[in-house]
Write the C-alpha cells for this entry.
Amino acid sequence: MLFLLKNHAMNNQLKQKSRLFVIGSFLILMALIFMISPLFKQLREEVFSEMKLKIYEKQHPQEENQKEEIKEDENFNSLESLPPSVEQQEETPPTYNYNYIGYLEIPKLGFKRGFVDKNSKYNNIEYNITISSVSDFPDKEKGNFIIMGHSGYGYAAFFANLHKISIGDQAIVTYKDQKYTYQLVNTYLQEKTGKVAIFRDFSKKALTLITCTYQDSTHQTIFVFEPV
C-alpha cells in the first residue's frame, strides 16, 4: 500500500513538472514570436514594396519610366520619425507668419497644409511640409513636385497618417490660384541613406511625397502621384 502511495505521489510530481515544462515552453515560444514578428513584418513590407515596384515598372515602358534621384540635403538628414512622447503630443505648435504660397490637400485624410517658398527659412520639416531643393513646381510641364514631411508624433508630424492612403486616392495641390489634382499610382520603401530614388513616368507631371515608414525606423516611404 505504501509503495502505491509513493508511486502515485511520484506520478503527480511528474505530471506537475510536465505541465510546468509545457507552460514554460509555451511562454518562451510566445516571447520569441513577439521578438521576431517585427522583423518578419519589415521583411514582408520590403518584399511587397519590391513586388509593387517591379509591377509598376512592367506597366510603364522603360523609356518613359526613369529613375530620378534626390541627393542628400539638410532636410533629408533630419527626415526622421519623431519618437512618441507625452511632451511632444501635448506640445503647442509655434505661431509664425509663414506666408504660404500654396496648399497640399489629401481628402481621404482630411489633410490640408500650406507650403512656403523653397528659399524661405520656414521651408524646413521642423516647421512645415517641405519642398525639396530639387523640386519643380506644379505648373512645370512634366515636372515633379516633391514634398517631404515628418511622420510619428508631435505638432511637426504632418505626414503621420500618410500610410493610410491607398492606390487611387487623390491629392490636390493649390498653387498660384490653380488647382492640380493627382491620384496615387505607386508606393515603395527605401532604406534611409541620405538620398531617394524616385521612379515615375517622365512623360507626365508628378507629385511625390516622402516620409518615414510607419513603425519602421530604418526605411522611408515614397508616394508617387500622377495627374487625374
The two ends are 89 Å apart (CA to CA). The beta strands are 65-70, 102-106, 111-115, 130-131, 144-148, 170-175, 178-191, 196-201, 206-212, 219-227.
